Amino acid sequence: MWPFTRQTQVSPEAETAKRAAEKSLHDAQAHLPVVEAKLNESRRVKEQLSAHNRANRYSDWIEAVVLGRLSDG
User: Fold this and answer.
1) How many Cα atoms are found within 13 Å in the side-chain-facing hemisphere of 58?
2) How far apart are CA 48 and CA 43, in angstroms?
3) InterPro entries, alphabetically (predicted)?
4) How many Å apart are CA 52 and CA 44, to the nearest integer?
5) N or C: which end of the chain has fewer CB within 10 A?
6) What gap in Å lies between CA 9 and CA 19, rounded to an integer?
7) pTM above the 0.85 mark?
């Protein structure tokens, strides 16, 4: 038989850590709509930049073809 009793009280540090974690979770959940909006905006801007870069590559290719023909003649 074990002569020592088990401690059933929760330490104050554990309670403080638990409350801090719960507050952090609630704060994160409260900011979720803002974060999702920023993520969607970021994705939209990324797509616009990709489209712009594709258009620039095509334009540069056309320019190279035209200038190449002009310099050959």
Assistant:
1) 6
2) 9
3) DUF7620
4) 12
5) N
6) 16
7) no
CA distances from 61 to 40, 47, 55, 64 (A): 32, 21, 10, 5
Q: Reduced to 3 states, what is the DSSP secondary structure of residue 36?
A: helix
Residue 19: what residue type? Answer: R
Cα separation, 51 vs 71, whole angstroms:
30
The amino acid that residue 10 corresponds to is V
Tokens of 43: 């994705």
Tokens of 65: 């073809």
